[in-house]
TrEMBL record:
Organism: Desulfotruncus arcticus DSM 17038
Subunit description: Monomer.
Record's catalysed reaction(s): coproporphyrinogen III + 2 S-adenosyl-L-methionine = protoporphyrinogen IX + 2 5'-deoxyadenosine + 2 L-methionine + 2 CO2
Listed name of the protein: Coproporphyrinogen-III oxidase
GO cellular-component term (any): cytoplasm
Required cofactor names: [4Fe-4S] cluster
Length: 414
């Protein structure tokens, strides 16, 4: 078995079987990385204080919304994830204030997975000890690479030594659940470079590694450098080799692949991300954060000042909302489920939607199995190694004719 996901309990849905999941977006960084197109702003203490005050007002509005759709106040949280941005670029006092706000607004238990993202260079033993004592029990460290050349190309501001120090400090603080984020396929990176990176990461004995292929996004410094000819793209064959080496080396080290880009020791899969991959419900707070509540999906405005001004007027900060149609809900469940090494549990799918996969998509799965892209085992449908390489094509076979119905949220006149 790849992991012990209990489909019968279906913890992904607030209404069926609480608790829920909470994501808090901290939109500040010391410096934006050259490859990053996430929403983030240069840190300054004044904006950070205003953001924390806005977060409190947003929680008050969310509590009203949850009650209006039939959920209780002080909703129980199975997972909490504070991401960014760089949450740990905030002062320790402000991070602890946000954690206190979360704990006073929602119900957390000893079993709640509570993750904070951290970048090397923004954490020390004192900060980590304080986070651990405050109830944070999982740390996700943005290592990205273990050689100076690649770190510089990616525009990271930390050193390899700072990553090593961060992991050691986290262990000393008491953390026994640490993730390392890594990126492969950087310009100038060879398969040998990547294997060295993986070996360095393995030496630190993390419980979890997320290894993502570099995506070149529009509007980033890295994209502009490539367009000017200052750098060259990593060859596609090299990227494929790196992906294959990732699985081989990490599984040999006891980190089992449970999702296309994620590896964990037994029982250390990221429970928060599993909610997303099972197309469950979640609440998102902060600029650019997304929420899925029942058949509605919301996205907050990406603009910090607009986020704050709307909340100051007692208005929700959503930029848009959409109704997730039953057809699209089924497609998203298939799409996300096939990312998992365990695959899509067919009995669970039928229990959730009231029809089987073959009822909805007659003959599609059988044809993809015959073509060698999918396999059925242990009651689940999953990608083969061949299917992983053409996963977008496989997923496209299940695209519904009806899409989600999205509407923009009106901005009040200023």
């Amino acid at each position: 078995m790849v992991n012990n996901i209990n489909y019968a309990s279906n913890y992904c849905f607030i209404g069926d079987n609480p608790p829920a999941s909470l994501y808090v977006h901290v939109p500040f960084c010391v410096r934006k990385c050259d490859y990053c197109d996430f929403i983030s702003f240069s840190y300054n203490s004044g904006d950070a204080e205003r953001y924390a005050a806005g977060l409190k007002r947003e929680i008050e509005l969310i509590e009203i919304e949850l009650i209006n759709v039939g959920y209780e106040k002080n909703l129980s949280m199975s997972t909490v994830f504070i991401g960014g941005g760089t949450p740990t670029c905030l002062s320790l006092e402000l991070i602890l204030e946000i954690i206190k706000l979360i704990k006073s607004s929602f119900s957390l238990s000893d079993n709640t997975e509570f993750t904070v993202e951290a970048n090397p260079g923004t954490i020390d033993r004192q900060k980590l000890q304080s986070l651990y004592r405050a109830g944070v029990n999982r740390l996700s460290i943005g290592a990205q690479a273990f050689d100076t050349k690649t770190l510089n190309i990616l525009g990271r501001i930390h050193t390899v030594e700072q990553t090593v120090d961060a992991v050691r400090a986290a262990r000393a603080a008491g953390f026994d659940n640490i993730n390392l984020d890594l990126i492969f396929g950087a310009p100038g990176q060879s398969p040998a470079d990547w294997r060295h990176c993986l070996e360095q990461a393995i030496e630190l004995q993390p419980e979890h590694i997320a290894a993502y292929g570099l995506q070149i996004e529009e509007g980033t410094r890295l994209k502009r450098r490539l367009e000017r000819g200052e750098l060259s793209l990593c060859a596609e064959d090299d990227q494929i080799q790196m992906y294959e080496d990732t699985a081989a080396l990490l599984e040999q080290a006891g980190l089992k692949k449970y999702e296309i880009s994620n590896y964990a020791r037994p029982g250390r899969e990221c429970r928060h991300n599993l909610v997303y991959w099972h197309n469950g419900e979640y609440i998102g707070l902060g600029p650019a954060a997304h929420s899925r509540i029942k058949n509605k999906r919301y996205a907050n405005t990406e603009q910090l000042n607009l986020y704050l001004s709307r909340l100051a007027e007692g208005l929700p900060p959503a930029a848009w909302e959409e109704t997730v149609t039953p057809e699209n809900d089924a497609f998203e469940t298939i799409f996300l489920g096939l990312r998992l090494s365990a695959g899509l549990n067919l009995a669970w799918f039928k229990a959730r939607f009231g029809y089987s996969l073959d009822d909805r998509y007659p003959g599609v799965a059988r044809r993809l199995i015959e073509q060698g892209f999918l396999e059925e085992a242990e009651g689940s449908l999953r990608l083969t190694s061949r299917g992983v390489n053409v996963s977008n094509m496989v997923m496209s076979e299940f695209v519904p004719p009806i899409t989600c119905l999205r509407t923009a949220c009106k901005t009040p006149p200023s």
